[in-house]
Each structure stands twice: as C-alpha cells, then as structure tokens.
Amino acid sequence: MKLAELGEFGFIERIRRAVAGAPGVHLGIGDDCAVLELPPGERLLTSTDLLIEEVHFRREWTDSFRLGRKSVSVNVSDIAAMGGTPRHLYLGLGIPADLPVEELDAFISGFLSACRDYGATLVGGDTCRSPGPLLISVTVEGSAPSAEVVSRRGARSGDGIYASGTLGDSALALRRLLDGSLPDDVSAARHHDPRAQVELGRTLAKARLPSAMIDLSDGLLADLGHILEASAVGAEIEIAALPLSPAFRSALAEAPELIELALSGGEDYQLLFTIPPAREGELAAISTALGLPLTRLGTVTAEPGRLWLRRADGGREAATAKGFNHFSPFGKG
Amino acid sequence: MKLAELGEFGFIERIRRAVAGAPGVHLGIGDDCAVLELPPGERLLTSTDLLIEEVHFRREWTDSFRLGRKSVSVNVSDIAAMGGTPRHLYLGLGIPADLPVEELDAFISGFLSACRDYGATLVGGDTCRSPGPLLISVTVEGSAPSAEVVSRRGARSGDGIYASGTLGDSALALRRLLDGSLPDDVSAARHHDPRAQVELGRTLAKARLPSAMIDLSDGLLADLGHILEASAVGAEIEIAALPLSPAFRSALAEAPELIELALSGGEDYQLLFTIPPAREGELAAISTALGLPLTRLGTVTAEPGRLWLRRADGGREAATAKGFNHFSPFGKG
C-alpha cells in the first residue's frame, strides 16, 4: 500500500490504536495537544532531537525497526543525563513519497518497542510528506523530583570524572560502514540500537551523587567540554583509563590512531558525570547492582576550560573539543 | 558568514544570548534538557509541528522573519485550541548548507518576536545541516487548570457551531501565489503571519463555554470532521453564514467557486468551537471585548459523522471532509 492511499489521518489512526493509555496521560494522540499530568512536586524535563537521512543515518545501513528504536533512545538519553524518568514522546515524521507503508510500520513498531523499554508513552506527533530525505523529529518529556535534577553546572575542582559502559564502539561501527566494510556485531548493535542509561541516571540522581552529568552524544572531549564550560572548571583525562570493549581493543591493536574514536567519536549514549571525592567510594556498589562498568577517567581541575590528556608515557597534551560539527561538510569542527 | 564557520554551538550560543529568563524556567537552552515548573494544579499541554520547505512554505514567497513568526503561531494555535496558555517552545532546525547566516538570524528574530507576543519562551532545540530542504520542527508546551482544558470530544446535538475571525483568507493568498499572481495585503498577512487566538481560547475556556474546540489548520470541513468524529455527532453548516473578509468577498464575486477555500482551504488558525444552546448568549460580550467576530456557522446534529451543507437556496448537500492530505501529490485527500 502507498502512503498517499492510506492518508495522513489513516496513518495516525493506525498509530493511535497501537498505543495504550498510561497514568498521567489524560489525552494522548488525537486532539490538538496531549493533556498530561506530572507526579506532584516533580520538575518537567524536555528535550528535542532531529534525525535526518544522510546526516544522521542511511537507510541502507540500518533496518526501519532499529531506526525507530534509536530515534527514541537518543532522545531519552537526554532525560537520563538529567537524572529523570522519561514519560511522554512526540514523533514528527517527514516521509518521502516512495517509502513503503511496510517500512513505516516497522519504524513505528521499533519506536513503540523502545518506548515500552523505557516505560514512556507516545502521546502526539505530526506527519507530512518530505520532498527529499526521511525526517524524524522526536521530543521527550520526563520528570524528576526538583532536588534530584542534575545539570552540567556543578562540577568542582577535585571531583572524579566517570563514564559508564565502554567508549568508541558506535563510532567504530560507523567508521567501518563508511569504509565499506562490515562492523563487528557488538559495535554494530551499539551504533544501530543504543540503550539510554535511564536506570543509571535515576540511581545516581536519587543518591545525589553527581555534581554534573551529560550524555555522551557528541564525543567524550566535546561533551566533557560542555561540562567544563558550564561549570567553569578544567579537567585532566588519562588516555589509558578509557573503558574500551574487547572488539574496540582488537581494532586498536591493528590501528592505534582509532583511539581518536573513543575520545571524539560520538553516539556512545553513555553517561559522563563528575563525583565529589568524598563520595567516589559509593560508585562500586551501583556499578555492581546495575551490572554496568563505571570507570574513572580523570579529575576536574581549577583552570576554566583547560582540558589535558595524560598519555601512557606520562606526558600530557592540551586537547580541543573535537566533537561532531553538524554544519561542517567533514563532520568534525 | 557561512554556518560551517560559525558552527552548531556558536549558532546555539547566539540564540541562547537572545533569550531572556522567565518564571518557571529553571534551566533553558544549554543543558541536556530544559528544566521547567508549571503553575500548581495545571495540566501540561504539548503539541508538535513540522514545517518543511516546498511542502509547507516556499522561501521565495515569504521572508525569513515572518517564517520564524509563523513557525511559532501555527504551533501555539494548538495550545489556544485547548484553552491553554503557551509557555515553552523548542525549535529543531535542519539547515541547508547554502542558507546565509543572515537569513537564519532573521528567522530566529521572527521566532523570538512571536514568542514574546504570546508570552512564551524558547527553552531548547536542536540544529543540524539538511541535505535538502529547510526543516523546521517546533514543539510547544502550555498549561491550563485541569477543569478548563477543552478537547474535541464534548460536542452535543443542538450545540451551536462557531468560528472566530474570517475564513479562507490564507488559502486565497496561497491560491494567488500558486497562480503566479499577487495576493492582496490582508490575505497575504493572514497567510504569512497568522495570529494564534490564544486570548480567545483562554477566555472561552475560563468561562467553561465550549463543549468542544479545535483550531482551523486543515480547513473548516476537515477540522469540524475531527470534532464530529471525536464527539460522535453530526452537523449542519449554512454556507451563507461563513464569515468572509471584504477581500475574500470581492474575489468570490468574480469566481464563486472560491467558496471552496473558505470550506476546505486550511491555515485559517482561527478557533472552531461548539456551545450549548443555553450559553450562546454569552458570546456577544466576549466578541466585543476581544474585538473579534464570533460567527454561528450552524448546529451540531445527532447523526454521527454526518455533515450537511445548507445552500443559500435552501437545499442541502452531504459534505465530505476534504482537508489537506499531506501525502497526496495534489494536496487534497
């Protein structure tokens, strides 16, 4: 079936029927606005992301189901970074005329499966045709008790710098795809179907452990740079401390320059956070409980904006925040 | 200056500096999420819209400042339709590489000027390059006391059907532009810089007058059709009752078939609402106070989904909801 036959309202009606109600959702899909209620005393947390074909993804590299899942996860990751619980999602779709309805159905199935994983509900959106690329716009609303919201602003000199999981896997998969070769399964899964670290974010926030937190979407150096700027501090990172997966390590053994991907690759969707020294001891139990590595990468320093990389030989070099520049034709700014 | 030189973070920083704080905005642009607080006891109302170049607008027909304003107004109109107060906006931009920074600055100026008009604040967004058209994604959050939220669901047989303002002006301007001729100034202003009827929506909701309400974005027949479907009722509309501007009337005198634009043209961004008969008398004072025509178009009937058009000669015909179909190559579904 072609989308022009089904029509905008037919398509929306199919989605509406697939979504169940949820507590706090007084009106979902099917009115001018969604009508919602947050738990009493909680702050509203909202974030929005665009995913554009040929910029953020290629349809030939992924399937529609995982693209739907990833569209949710990259957005929910921003809620995790504030220590919040994701609640409501909004999906804007600009759809090329030639996209089969079956592909759209798979995308929606993936989108809804990820919503279920995170306990969130699709409550609104907008659909129209696109004259060019497939366009995906996702907005997420979450909430957290006001005293538990974690911003980028609170890092202090002496705090430990930590990352969850491993770094560079997604960027390694993307590098393979760009080279025309096949990524290993672990890296490919990290790239096509990343998991937002909601449980970790909530656990840390509830314990009021992090002085600052951000999700790793633009690359470690760029995202750490955002914390340093917002907190007016500096940092020193030990390159040897970067948490790397076995697949990444074996790639690195063949091509040492790939360490750049763990430093600046982007799309890790892990959490990067700073912890006051007196409380660093509490992390081990959380890591064990969640079955998730939490690795100390370095230390916050006093000099605003100054970011040093400590090499394995003991020397150090000044780093610049070389995150993804979406406006540069070469990606890196 | 080209956008690639300014970079994503440079561009966001320019926007951030142009936005003032507001009550209830604990964190705006510059963290993973905006952190917000609604007035106690109010429901959260959220809506999202996509505006895509060559689908919703052409850059040659409008200037960037008014495009920025319209991007806000069409979204805020959904808050007005629920009886709410608009509070927070989120802007996603997919930007063609060749778009001059000056155009972007004009767009942002227009966007922020409309935010100020509605008393709302830009608190977040996402920017990236677009490989094709200019892409605009806007999400708005508003709120209303829970007892005052108006949905599409409450229309009852015997209720009067009302529209604010005049109908068809925006569609007339679009028709002229598509024909390659120049629209009159009034119609052009309605098309390029519509005003969301927030004050009317709030006034009606506060008085708990409307049994159902919607904003006129897809065209009178299509949007009335949404109310009929959600409320499981029918309607009869008097064609002679349609509120038309002087400019529209003079166009109609030359081409009577243009009445179709008032019935199905779309983008009026007026409010369409139903009022129980016992309370219709209260509308005149509101119309006078706001300086805005509120016109009775017809009556809600009992037969679900049945929409009759009463002609000036007394005869009637069954109407179908011929609103804009964004997936049809010809626009109309």
From TrEMBL, chains A, B:
Pathway: Cofactor biosynthesis; thiamine diphosphate biosynthesis; thiamine diphosphate from thiamine phosphate: step 1/1. ATP binds at residues 125-126, 152, 217. Residues 30-142 form the PurM-like N-terminal domain. Mg(2+) 3 binds at residues 32, 78, 215. Catalyzes the ATP-dependent phosphorylation of thiamine-monophosphate (TMP) to form thiamine-pyrophosphate (TPP), the active form of vitamin B1. Reaction mechanism of ThiL seems to utilize a direct, inline transfer of the gamma-phosphate of ATP to TMP rather than a phosphorylated enzyme intermediate. This is Thiamine-monophosphate kinase. The lineage of its organism: Bacteria, Pseudomonadati, Thermodesulfobacteriota, Desulfuromonadia, Desulfuromonadales.
